[in-house]
Amino acid sequence: MMKVVFDKPKALSDTPFHYCPGCTHGIIHRLVAEAMDELNIKDKAIGVAPVGCSVFAYKYFNCDMHEAAHGRAPAVATGIKRVLPDNIVFTYQGDGDLASIGTAEIVHAAARNENITVIFVNNAIYGMTGGQMAPTTLIGQKTTTSPYGRDPKMTGLPIKMSEMLATLDSTYYIERVSVHDVKHIKQAKKAIKKAFENQVENKGFSLVEVLSTCPTNWGLSPAESLDWVKDSMIPVYPLGVMKDSDE
Amino acid sequence: MEKVLMKGNEAIAEAAIQAGCKYFFGYPITPQNEIPAYMAKKLPKIDGGVFLQAESEVSAINMVYGAAGAGARVMTSSSSPGISLKQEGISYIAGAALPCVIVNIVRGGPGLGGIQPAQSDYFQSVKGGGHGDYHLIVYAPSTLQEMVSLTMEAFDIADLYRNPVMVLGDGMLGQMMEPVSFEKPPARELPEKDWSTTGCDGSRKPNVINSLYIDPEELEIEVNKTYKKYEVIKENETRYETYNCEDADIIVAAYGTTARIVKSVIDMAKEKGVKVGLIRPITIWPFPYAPVEAYADKDHVKAFLTVEMSMGQMVEDIRLGVKNKKPVHFYGRTGGMVPTPDDILSEILKIVEEA
Question: Which intervals hold domain Pyruvate flavodoxin/ferredoxin oxidoreductase pyrimidine binding (chain B) (predicted)?
């Protein structure tokens, strides 16, 4: 018999992803599922799905899932975790969700050091609604609502959520990673797994920001999109550990 | 049973705890602050009990949404402007068919309004409030004892029908003191919460709590299912009280605080030779249309008068019940003004004179 060297994680369902070609949500979903498999937490995990491109996360993760309104996932997760402190509760949120409409919810969940795991997918644009400006949109970046390029005089500067949340004394672990190449995907996996492990060990609020692509709304090919993450996004959103209370 | 003198808001909180509510998420707003304060004091002393002050009403109701999804008995409370903020979450909770209890101790509005008692959130409570096709079950107690019993009942009703239930009081009921006893309502047979997100533990397929149906045909099917449930609720849970209606010339419709005041007006009217009856909806959704119509059909009833602390909201439901069979008059005070018995009596005498 041949040895299986690559398989679908158990924490992913059989539902095919709806994501656009070249979008890295698929990779990030897989990393989250692999981490759940390796820590053997799928059966006690409860995921909170956001609004936006990853709204159907509740169809893709093979664990109990709770859909939330735009931005409110950290509050919903708080409600679940306070009732079921021994379960593993995670949110999966995009930048429109977490950095715009849900800023209060994420800041205060972090400030309370809720023992939850947050996967924050930042692609610098609103995807699902058709490519509008996000708080994370880069200076000069063209979107449907910043058609002449984002003008900081008008709309301010990109919000660096990870840096901002790391300033809160109570947060346990904040890291920014990227999935634009294999080396970085491996680092992202490590960070995501650690964010879940922290919760298993009751350490507290852990957030992993993952730089992600949006070929459709960026108007770039999948390959160009990966380069854009590396060349344009990482200089604005530097990778690395912003805070790790283990160190 | 032993009676205790309690403030309305504290009585609600104690009733919730005795009904098995272990989780409370809220945000301060006058005139309901004694509820979260009571919960903050008591819940941490209960095994597993949690009181959490959220960063906003929006967060508080979404914490309720999560806790209800996790299968807990959970409550939040607020007052008018705060309830407006909670409407987004209430729509999602109704959409996902989750049980929870929401207390609204109404104050004057619109906008920041005032902090005095009002009934101007009637439309918001019974005609929607949030977006989409849905209803809350809304209890409108008029005494503190009833606030206790209906709050207790609300948790069972929420679990039974998988529907959010609102206890609608006002600043007067929240702030006044009366002796109350904490007798539990008769036990109902309640369904298992096998839909809740508690971690699937390898023993079942994953549960999903959701209100999203991208396919419009699927969404319509879901909404229709909910509306079938509402028919059962209308059939089984509509509650009201009538008082002195049997031979009344004038029937006054009022709920909550105004109904209490109308009760004293009935005796005052009797002295003037006018027979006044009261119809008091206890559930304002579902609304007791049938008894209203039954009295509209009686020959001895000459007219209806609706008394509210609003510009006239419940009067629309009374008109729907009366079906143009008798004249319907309205008397309302608003902005936090409470009508006096004399105010109401002179309205009644005016109607008698005109008739």
Answer: 14-186
Give SS3 for A176. strand
ipTM score of complex: 0.97
In this prediction the pTM is 0.97
Structure-token pair, residue A9: 């994680």
8 Å CB contact of A82 and B202: no
Q: For every one of its 355 residues, what pLDDT tens digit does chain B have, with 9 covering 90 and above?
A: 899 999 999 999 999 999 999 999 999 999 999 999 999 999 999 999 999 999 999 999 999 999 999 999 999 999 999 999 999 999 999 999 999 999 999 999 999 999 999 999 999 999 989 999 999 999 999 999 999 999 999 999 999 999 999 999 999 999 999 999 999 999 899 999 999 999 998 789 999 999 999 999 999 999 999 999 999 999 999 999 999 999 999 999 999 999 999 999 999 999 999 999 999 999 999 999 999 999 999 999 999 999 999 999 999 999 999 999 999 999 999 999 999 999 999 999 999 998 7
- The residue in chain A having the minimum alpha-carbon distance to the alpha carbon of residue B23 is A83
Cα separation, B136 vs B4, in Å, equals 30
The closest CB to that of A79, out of B67, B96, B207, belongs to B67
Of B59, B69, B206, the CB nearest to A80: B69
Is the dihedral angle over the CA atoms A161, A167, A168, A171 positive or is it negative?
positive
| Omega within 30 of 0 (cis) for the link into B110 | yes
Q: How many CB atoms lie within 10 A of CB B188?
A: 10
CB B170 within 8 A of CB B106: yes
* Contacts with B, A 146-185, CB within 8 Å: none
Instruction: Answer whether A46 sits within 8 Å of B96, measured CB to CB.
Output: no
What are the backbone dihedrals phi and psi of residue A137, each rounded to the nearest 5 degrees, phi first?
Answer: -60, 135
Query: Which CA distances in Å does A203 have to A51, A115, B144?
Result: 28, 7, 44
Rounded to whole angstroms, how far apart are CA atoms B61 and B89?
A: 6
Contact predicate A172/A206, CB 8 Å: yes
Q: Does A223 touch chain B (CB under 8 A)?
A: no
